[in-house]
Write a structure and sequence with these properties.
Largest sheet: 7 strands, parallel
Number of domains: 2
Order of helices and strands: EHEEHEHEHHEHEEHEHEHEHEH
Helix content: 25-40%
Shape: elongated
Number of strands: 12
Distance between the termini: 20 Å
CATH architecture of the largest domain: 3-Layer(aba) Sandwich
Oligomer: single chain
């Protein structure tokens, strides 16, 4: 990318916010204001959409609206998303345009990996069962020390989680598309090794992008391969796991517990059997806090504005072929 001016617009604009779901909320206004400061901090200019060559797109789940915006403003050469997961946009074909798309992948890894560790420990130590008990009800806890951990996905969350697991002496395997070994792991394996690895897994952590290839990557066949004492933790996307298969695996004792920050469907309906299962800890897609997300996003926007002006590669660039 050649050096260029950074003339950045934020969508939706102030005029359009009343027409968009949460757009007129204080949260949204605060977010837009902070992003404008980040643009200025990076040496860019906050401009109307008609004058922009860069766009910070804050509207979730609206690929058609983004398509129309880009069609009407061919001068836009860069689009920044505030989320790490962009699967709704990837399936629309937008990423094959001659535009650089960037997302927040890697930005939130610190808090999400911390949340994953909490779900692991809570699942091993039967925290939900004990919290619900109306009387003194001791259980025999299981330790994390020395456990065999398999992580699906080799991005920022996996790297941060590996660091957090270091004091526990876990034997860690990572399954991902790229063959480069990740420091702190016993092995880095390709996706084709999943079935061979599951029988040797005490804790399975899902921390990968959702693509057509990874949708329902964990179903009945995969859950059946896990040892009965295994714990499943998902901090990625709910659709990585076939929910009915997970319910059945818990019912039959094929696995011992699950910790879920994401579900499919999401939100999980009231009365769903997973809510009532004392072996399941569900947190409502809240692994990263709003303040943390805002800070990390603004830091990335500021750095990317600087990168744009200097002609350097942008952080979090989306690979159109991979979809993330």
């Amino acid at each position: 990318m050649s050096p260029m001016e950074a003339r950045i617009a934020i969508a939706p604009s102030a005029e359009a916010r009343r027409a968009y779901g949460r757009a007129n909320s204080p949260d949204f206004d605060h977010l837009a204001s902070e992003i404008e400061e980040a643009v200025s901090g990076g040496g860019g200019a906050n401009v109307p959409l008609a004058e922009a060559n860069g766009l910070v797109w804050l509207i979730p789940g609206e690929p058609e609206q983004l398509r129309l915006t880009l069609d009407g403003h061919p001068g836009i050469e860069w689009v920044q998303f505030p989320w790490a997961g962009v699967e709704k946009f990837a399936t629309s074909g937008l990423f094959h345009r001659p535009v650089v798309f960037t997302c927040a992948k890697g930005s939130f890894a610190g808090q999400v990996s911390e949340h994953a560790l909490m779900l692991i420990l809570a699942s091993l130590r039967s925290v939900v069962r004990q919290a619900r008990a109306p009387h003194w009800s001791p259980v025999d806890p299981r330790s994390l020390h020395g456990r065999r951990v398999t992580i699906l996905g080799g991005g920022g969350i996996a790297s941060e989680l590996i660091h957090l697991l270091r004091p526990f002496g876990c034997r860690i395997r990572v399954i991902r598309r790229r063959p480069e070994k990740i420091e702190g792991t016993q092995e880095t394996l390709p996706p084709t090794a999943l079935h061979a690895t599951l029988p040797e897994t005490d804790i399975l952590v899902l921390a990968l992008a959702l693509t057509p290839e990874t949708r329902h990557v964990i179903g009945a066949a995969e859950l059946a391969l896990l040892p009965p004492q295994a714990v499943v933790v998902n901090v990625a996307r709910g659709a990585h796991i076939q929910t009915d298969a997970l319910v059945e695996a818990l019912r039959t004792g094929a696995i011992s517990a699950a910790g879920l920050d994401v579900t499919d469907p999401e939100p999980l309906p009231d009365g769903h059997p997973l809510w009532a299962d004392p072996r399941v800890l569900i947190t409502s897609h809240c692994a990263d806090s709003a303040d943390y997300v805002l800070r990390m996003l603004c830091e990335r926007v500021e750095r990317n504005v600087r990168n744009l002006r200097a002609g350097r590669p942008l952080e979090g660039t989306i690979d159109p072929a991979a979809g993330y």
